[in-house]
Amino acid sequence: MRVIANRDLCQGHARCEDLCHEVFATDAIEGKVVIVQADVPTALEDKARLAVRNCPEGALRVGRSGKGDDA
Ligand code: SF4
Predict the structure, then answer these.
(1) Rounded to 10 degrees, what is the CA torsion of 70, 15, 48, 23?
(2) Nearest ligand 1 atom to alpha carbon 17
(3) Which of 7, 29, 32 has most ligand 1 atoms within 8 Å of CB, for mutation?
């Protein structure tokens, strides 16, 4: 599983980081999302999906590893 962020939509709530800091962080200057590891390990998939679902701006999405398609 792969995660993709649209930083144009991100408003820097850091909810993704709070829910899954292993995959998501926010940058120190703009406060926008940074993907720490785009290819999400199987053990973190549920946490990463929860974070994607809880982004209030719809700035995150899930794709298949290596393709970027919607899963
Ligand atoms: S939860 Fe969404 S809007 Fe907030 S920092 Fe993460 S990607 Fe950006």
Answers:
(1) 110
(2) 6
(3) 32
Would you say the pTM of this structure is higher than 0.70? yes
Domain ranges for the chain, please list them: 2-63
pLDDT tens digit sequence for 42-59: 999 999 999 999 999 999
According to DSSP, the β-strands at 2-5 and 24-26 are unpaired
Average pLDDT, the chain: 92
Q: Which atom of ligand 1 is nearest to the CA of 9?
A: 3
Domain range 2-63, CATH class: alpha beta
- What's the gap in Å between 66 CA and the centre of ligand 1? 23
